Amino acid sequence: MSRTKGPRKIRGPFTFAWEQRKLGELFNFHYGDGNNNPSNGGKYPVFGAGGIQGGYTKYNAENSVIIGHMGDAGCVSWGEGKHFATYNGTITKPKDEVFSAKFGYYLLLHMICENIAVEAGFHF
After folding, report:
1. 40 φ/ψ sector (left φ>0, alpha ψ -120 to 50, else beta)
2. In whole angstroms, what is the distance from residue 29 CA to residue 95 CA?
3. pTM to 2 decimals?
4. Which CA distances in Å does 119 have to 8, 22, 66, 89, 107?
5. 51-67 burial, b if ≥16 CB within 10 A, otherwise e?
6. pLDDT tens digit sequence for 73-93
7. Which of the chain's termini has less CB crowding within 10 Å, N or C?
């Protein structure tokens, strides 16, 4: 099967202009902190590559998408409110507030990120 380069055609009566973009043009990505789960029973959820792993007394993100890049590479989670993301989770936020972080979560979730994960995890 051959692949054609360029924009894909999407069916539908769209009344607005849209264009295809690379993820790096739409989102800021940065790794969480620490290689270990710092869970100590605190009130802030701890996110690793595969979602919530415990609770911690500190936070390093708020209302953000977390994408697993090691272990459970491609797993997309929503971090509601203040939360802590470990190094195994990539904190993801839209650039320039063009759309909300929650919309970005649904966008990434429906892209099925597992299909774009590489063997050693995501490389940002």
Report:
1. alpha
2. 10
3. 0.76
4. 27, 20, 19, 16, 23
5. bebbbbeebbbeebbbb
6. 888 999 999 999 999 999 999
7. N
Q: What angle do CA 101, 107, 111 make, to 5 degrees?
A: 145
**pLDDT greater than 90 at residue 61:** yes
**Cβ contact 47:39 at 8 Å:** no
